[in-house]
Amino acid sequence: MKERIQSVDIVRGLIMIIMTLDHTRDFLHLAGPPPLDVQRTTVILFFTRWITHFCAPTFVFLSGVSACLAAQRRTTGQMTTFLLKRGAWLILSDLVIISLIFSFDVHYHFPVLEVLWAIGFGMIILALLIRAPKKIIALVAILIIAGHNLLDNVDLPKNGTPGNLTTLLLNGVGALIPIGANRFIFAIYAAIPWTGALLLGYVFGHLYKKGYNAAKRQKILKLSGCALIVLFVTLRLINHYGDPVLWAVQRNWAHTLLSFLNVRKQTPSLLFMVMTLGPVLLLLSATEGISNRVTRFCTVYGNVPYFYFIAHLVLLRIINVAGVVLARIPFDFQKPAPVWAAPGFGIPLWGVYLCWITVIALMYYPCRQYGRYKQTHSGWWLSFI
After folding, report:
1. Assigned domain for 76 exists
2. Checking DSSP bridges between strand 112-113 and strand 175-180, what pairing results, if any?
C-alpha cells in the first residue's frame, strides 16, 4: 500500500469541500450583485465567496508539496520527465475537459485556462528548476509572490503577441485571447504569480521527507503561518503595497471588514497569497497526527484530488441541466460562450448550500472506492488521475 501524508490529504480534502461550495454557487445561484462588490453585496454572500479564496492557493501550494514527495521516489531525470508530462496533462485537461464542461461547446470556441493550467505551468517551471538548490527555488518563489505587484503601475503590453503573453503569464483576468477565426482562449489564471505558490509548496515539501523530525516540522509550519498572517495584517493596515485595491471605511463596521479582507485573487496579489497560505500552514500543523471522523471524512476527498475535481464539476452540470429542464427554460446553444448558462435560471442562496451538501454526499463513495483502488494498484495512469 502506498504511503501518504495524512495531514496533507486532510487539508486538501477540506479545501475541496469548500471549493465545491463556490462551484455550486457558480452553476446554480440566482444572478445578482457580484459577491465581492462591497458596495452591493451582503455579508453572507461575501463570505460564501471569500472562504473559497483559500481553495486555489492551497491546491497550487500542495501540488508543490506533492511534487517534492514524488521526487523522493524518482531520480532527478525521472522527476523532470514526470513534471513535464503531468504539467502538460493538466493544461490539456483545462483546454479539453474543463472547457467542455463549462461551455457545452464541442467546437471549442472558448477553450479555458483555469486553475489546472496554472498548476500545470508551475510544474513545467519546476521541472526546469528541479536541479537547482532548494534555496534558489525558495528565492524564486518569494520574488514572484512578493515582487510581482511592483508591476501594478507598469504599462504592460496589451495588444498583439506581447500583450497576449502578458495576459497569459502575468495578468490574466477573464481575458479573451484570439487564436483563430471565432476562437478565443478564455484566460482566467495568470501563470507566473500562481507558479510562486507551487514553488513555495515544493520548498515546504522538504519538511515531509522521511526522517524529518515531526515536532520541528509542526513548529516551522506554525511559525511560518503566524508570520504570514501578521504580514497580511501589517501590510493591509499600511494600505500601500501588496494589493492594487486599497481598503476603505464603509457604511458600517461589517462592510469595512469586508473591504479590509477583499484582496485580489486574479491576479493573486501578495496580500491574497499571505492571507490564504498563512492559515493553511497553521492547519497543516494542527492536523498532523490527528484522526477522527472529520479528518477521515476529509481524507476521502483529499486522496483523489484530480478525480474529484473533474467528477464534481460533471455532477454539478447534470444538476444544473436538470434544474433548467424542471424550470422549463429553453436551451440556447446558438451563441457560444466561455461558460454556458440558461438566462433566468437560478436558485436562492439557501438552495445553493443544500445542493452543496448533496454533491459532497453523492461524491463520498465514488471517491472512497477510487482512493482505495489507487492505494492498492500501481498503474502508470494513476499518477495522472
Report:
1. yes
2. unpaired
**Whole-angstrom distance, CA of residue 290 vs CA of residue 372:** 20
Instruction: Work out how many domains the chain is built from and give that number.
Output: 1
Instruction: Measure Cα distances from 152 to 64, 166, 266, 270 in Å.
Output: 26, 13, 12, 11
Which pLDDT tens digits describe the chain residue by residue (385 residues)?
Answer: 456 899 999 999 999 999 999 999 999 999 888 999 998 999 999 999 999 999 999 999 999 999 999 998 899 999 999 999 999 999 999 999 999 999 999 999 999 999 999 999 999 999 999 999 999 999 999 999 999 888 877 777 777 777 788 888 888 777 788 888 888 999 899 999 999 999 999 999 999 998 899 999 999 999 999 999 999 999 999 999 999 989 999 989 999 999 999 999 988 999 999 999 999 999 999 999 999 999 999 999 999 999 999 999 999 999 999 999 999 998 887 788 888 888 889 999 999 999 999 999 999 999 999 999 988 887 878 878 8
Cell numbers placing 221: 509550519
* Helix count and strand count (H, E) for the chain: 15, 3
Full-prediction pTM beyond 0.90?
yes
In a domain, 111, yes or no: yes
Does 1 reside within a domain?
no
Please report whether residue 378 resides in a domain: yes
Q: From 321, 225, 205, select the one nearest 276 (Cα to Cα).
A: 225
Cα angle vertex 352, ends 54, 358, to 5°? 90
* Residue 241: other Cβ atoms inside 10 A: 14
Residue 46: how many other CB atoms lie within 10 Å: 21
| Domain enclosing residue 222, as ranges | 6-383
The string over 154-181, giving b where at least 16 C-beta atoms fall within 10 Å of a residue's C-beta and e elsewhere, is: eeeeeeeeeebebbbbbbbeebebeeee
Q: Is the dihedral of CA 127, 132, 135, 141 positive or negative?
A: negative
